[in-house]
Amino acid sequence: MNSPAGQPGPRPEAAGPRDSAGAARRFRAPSRDGAKRVERPGPTGPGATLAFVESPVQLLNVLEWAYADGGDPEALTVVVLSPHDPMTRGQLRRMAELARDEGIAVRWEEARGGAGAPLKTIGGLRGPLRRADRIVIGDPFSRYVQLLLMLTRAQDLIVVDDGTATMEFVSQLASGEPLVRWHRRGTGRGAREMVFAPVSATARRRLTPGGNRRVEVFSSMPVEPPAGVTVTANSFAWTRDRFGPPTLTRGTDLVGTSLVETGVVDLERYLEAVASLARTHGATRYFAHRRESAEKLHRVAAEIGLEIVRPDLPLELIARRGPIGHTIVSFPSTVVHTLPLALVGTGVKVAVCDVDPAWLRSDASPRAQGFLSGVTGTARDAHRLQSMPAATP
């Protein structure tokens, strides 16, 4: 059963930005009451900043970075490299609306819209890429982004938070390893990987500081950067200024994860853990990850009895806007790091449940358990729960 809370509350634009004195922050573009927003094409010459995003969380963190960087939307153009997944596309369109309401130019590219789409997209971006002074990226593991990095002459590169993937990126950059997602199985030496290896290697060099090239990581995750890389803390200040504070319910909310869909956790073990968490903590709602399958969510609703909520924005914004439970329980994921920041001062408790090694699929990446334990162990402001015992098969 799907909840109307998937589209909760009034539009967030009504909540204005405030500083400590209650005055309006300059990040929001000025507008007249009742005036229709005028789209800008975005800057393309020297001094321009191009940001490339492929997920709603990446776009949220571009907004956070722009706000923390001083709030000059006139220099920024966000390029959305649109994916196929309908839920991701929907959240991206909502985030694009918020970005435009901040006075930021958004360029939507159907980058995967057919056989000729990649060439058309890259060709159209070649000029702006060569002229831009700063490049902001949300996913350094993306092959699309790695191709685009080969075309830029920018000496200022910023990687904004992509959640737990940011932890892996910084670790691999520091150790000199190839850029490979933590949950990817196998050796990474297949035919496609071999063909793409030179592009990935070039992107990695571009993301390594040297000479006049500056590399910054803007993140809320606990990272230890290599020499020369600047880390700027993402405190979710934009989110807190624009949204909430939320109304709290008396219940507990569970946060779903795509660990089953990425081939890390066994489906049956996952459902057992969700059922046990729901019983133990009295949860009634399940906030679905945008990549969770409809079949799995149907079983969560039918067999466990949880109300399924399909958010239309990243959970940090949904939780901040409310209503939200007084306790939020999650498996190891980005939100155990970001929600405490977004909800600071609200009284909401965030708890994280470890993934039992018995839940892992036999063909899961050998790095999976260590990585997930690290995500849990480094969650500074989340309460750590013991993993739910796995049933005997």
TrEMBL record:
Region described as Disordered: spans on this chain: 1-49
Ranges of biased composition (kind: Basic and acidic residues): 30-40
UniProt-recorded name of the protein: Glycosyltransferase
Protein species of origin: Streptomyces milbemycinicus
